[in-house]
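Action item from last meeting closed. Structure (506 res):
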C-alpha cells in the first residue's frame, strides 16, 4: 500500500492512503471535522466493521422484564409521584423526509405503474386524514394522475417533499392531526412536569420553518385543551457529524467541482444532539409511531411505568455509589457485582479477579447513563432486537442489534439471531446524569466499531457511505440497559402511506 505525506499548515499526516489537497483541509475544517476523524473513517472503509458477537437472545426472564398488572400500576404511580421534582423531556427524531412512504405513488406518477398499493390508495382515498385538504386543492378526483400530482408535489399538498411530522395522520370529528401534533398530546400526558411539557425535535434546516409555523398555529389550542404549557426546541443534524464518502476502491469520492463528498451519517449522528439535552428523564420515540387518542392509554401507562423502572434502578445505582465511596468492603463489592450481573444483566469478564480489579470494574459499570427500552413481541418487522452480546472488555451485556451487524454466514450466529423473541420499536427512556446532577459525555459511551457501510450512487457513479453507530444501537453500547416488554399496540409505525389505513390509525 502506498502512503502519501500530506502537508497543510506545516502539519504532516503520514497515515493517509491518499492525497488530500489544501482545499480539502479547508473544506474539512469548515465543517468542524478533525482530519484524524476523516482518516479513521477511511480506515473503517478499508477494514470494515466487525460483526457483533451474539451470546444469546434476550427473552422474558433472561434479559427481558415482563410486568404484571400490579407492577405496571406501581411503577407508573412511582413515576407520576416523582415527576413533579424532575425535568422531563421528549426527544423526537423528525428530520427525515417522507419520500419512501410514497414509493409506489411516485412510480405511478412518473411511469404510470399501478400496483396493488396504488389501487388501494385510490379505493380508500376518503379514509385518509388528509382527504379534505386534497379536495380543497380543487383537483379532479376522477383523474388519478392529477390526484397523485396534487398529493405529492408542491403544486398541491407537497406531501412527497415533506417530513413525516408535518403529514396529517389521524382524522377526528372536527379536525385532523399531524404526527407532530400527536406527539404534543403524548408529551402532555407522560412527559410533563409542573404543568410544562418539554419536547425537542431534530429537523432538517429546510423544514424547520414549516414546523415552527405549524406550532405557532396549533399550540394555543393544545395548551388550553390539555392544560399544559409547551416548551419546544429544535436542533439540526450537525455538519461535523457528516461522514466522508469514498469510491469503491476506498479513495475519497469527489463531486463534479472537485470537492469532497460528505453525507449525513444516519440517526447515530443525533447522539450529538441528544448530548446537548439537559433533562432528568428523556423519552425517545420516533416521529411516525403514534396512534389516535382512542388507543393511547396503553402507551401512556407503559411510558410512565418504564420511567418508574428507570428511576428505581437509578436510585439503587446512586445508593451503591454512595456506599462504595464510604466503605468498599469485600461484602459490599460482592453485593454490587451480583447486582450488576443479575439486575443490570452485565456478565463480569473472567479476567476480573482481584479485589482492586473488581472495585475498578464495578465503579466503571455503575457510572454510566441508563436506558430502559420497551420491546415488543417479534412479529417479523425488519430491524433490531434485544440480545446478550460480548463486549470488547470481555463482559457480556444487553444490546439492541440490527441484522446487518450479525454474521449471517455463521450458522451459530444466525441461529441465535433467529431465536430472537422481541423487537425494538425505538421506545426508550433515558437518564444521562450522575448522582450529582452532572451530565455524562454521551459520546464517550458509544462503540465506534458498530458503524455501518452502505453502497450508494451519485451522478451515476457508485460510492460507499458510512453511518455512525446507530442512536439506540452502538451509540448506546456502553449504557446500563434494561429491556421491558410492552404491548404490540404501542408499536404502530407508518412506513408507507397505506399504513394509515390500518385499523390502529383510523
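Sequence:
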Amino acid at each position: 500500500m502506498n502512503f502519501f505525506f500530506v502537508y497543510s499548515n506545516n502539519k504532516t499526516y503520514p497515515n493517509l492512503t491518499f492525497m488530500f489537497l489544501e482545499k480539502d483541509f479547508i473544506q474539512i475544517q469548515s465543517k468542524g471535522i478533525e482530519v484524524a476523524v476523516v482518516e479513521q473513517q477511511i480506515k473503517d472503509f478499508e477494514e470494515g466493521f466487525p460483526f457483533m458477537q451474539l451470546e444469546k437472545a434476550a427473552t422474558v426472564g433472561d434479559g427481558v422484564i415482563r410486568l404484571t398488572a400490579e407492577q405496571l400500576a406501581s411503577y407508573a404511580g412511582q413515576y407520576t409521584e416523582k415527576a413533579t421534582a424532575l425535568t422531563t423531556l421528549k426527544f423526537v427524531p423528525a428530520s427525515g423526509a417522507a419520500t419512501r412512504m410514497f414509493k409506489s405513488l411516485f412510480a405511478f406518477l412518473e411511469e404510470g405503474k399501478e400496483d396493488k398499493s396504488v389501487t388501494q390508495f385510490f379505493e380508500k382515498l376518503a379514509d385518509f386524514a388528509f382527504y379534505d385538504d386534497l379536495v380543497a386543492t380543487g383537483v379532479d378526483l376522477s383523474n388519478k394522475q392529477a390526484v397523485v400530482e396534487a398529493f405529492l408535489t408542491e403544486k398541491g399538498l407537497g406531501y412527497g417533499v415533506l417530513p413525516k411530522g408535518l403529514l396529517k395522520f389521524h382524522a377526528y370529528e372536527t379536525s385532523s392531526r399531524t404526527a407532530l401534533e400527536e406527539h404534543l398530546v403524548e408529551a402532555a400526558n407522560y412527559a410533563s412536569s409542573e404543568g410544562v411539557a418539554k419536547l425537542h425535535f431534530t429537523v432538517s434546516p429546510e423544514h424547520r420553518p414549516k414546523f415552527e409555523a405549524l406550532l405557532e398555529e396549533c399550540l394555543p389550542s393544545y395548551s388550553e385543551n390539555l392544560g399544559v404549557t409547551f416548551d419546544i426546541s429544535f436542533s439540526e443534524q450537525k455538519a461535523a457529524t457528516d461522514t466522508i464518502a469514498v469510491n469503491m476502491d476506498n479513495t475519497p469520492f469527489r463531486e463534479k467541482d472537485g470537492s469532497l463528498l460528505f453525507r449525513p451519517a444516519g440517526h447515530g449522528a443525533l447522539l450529538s444532539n441528544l448530548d446537548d439535552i439537559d433533562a432528568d428523564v428523556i423519552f425517545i420515540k420516533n416521529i411516525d409511531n403514534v396512534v389516535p387518542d382512542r388507543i393511547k392509554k396503553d402507551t401512556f401507562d407503559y411510558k410512565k411505568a418504564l420511567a418508574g423502572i428507570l428511576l428505581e434502578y437509578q436510585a439503587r445505582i446512586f445508593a451503591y455509589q454512595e456506599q462504595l465511596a464510604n466503605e468498599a468492603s469485600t461484602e459490599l463489592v460482592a453485593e454490587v457485582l451480583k447486582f450488576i450481573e443479575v439486575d443490570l444483566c452485565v456478565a463480569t469478564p473472567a479476567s476480573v479477579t482481584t479485589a482492586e480489579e473488581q472495585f475498578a470494574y464495578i465503579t466503571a459499570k455503575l457510572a454510566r447513563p441508563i436506558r430502559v427500552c420497551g420491546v415488543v413481541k417479534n412479529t417479523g418487522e425488519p430491524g433490531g432486537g434485544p440480545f446478550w452480546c460480548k463486549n470488547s472488555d470481555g463482559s457480556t451485556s444487553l444490546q439492541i442489534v440490527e441484522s446487518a451487524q450479525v454474521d449471517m454466514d455463521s450458522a451459530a450466529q444466525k441461529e441465535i439471531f433467529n431465536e430472537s423473541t422481541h423487537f425494538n420499536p425505538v421506545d426508550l427512556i433515558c437518564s444521562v446524569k450522575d448522582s450529582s446532577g452532572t451530565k455524562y459525555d454521551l459520546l464517550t459511551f458509544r462503540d465506534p466499531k458498530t458503524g455501518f457501510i452502505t453502497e450508494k450512487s451519485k451522478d451515476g457513479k457508485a460510492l460507499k457511505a458510512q453511518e455512525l453507530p446507530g442512536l439506540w444501537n452502538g451509540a448506546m453500547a456502553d449504557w446500563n440497559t434494561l429491556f421491558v416488554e410492552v404491548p404490540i399496540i404501542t408499536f404502530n409505525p407508518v412506513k408507507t402511506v397505506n399504513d394509515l389505513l390500518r385499523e390502529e390509525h383510523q
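Note appended to the action item: Residues 297-326 form the longest helix (30 residues).
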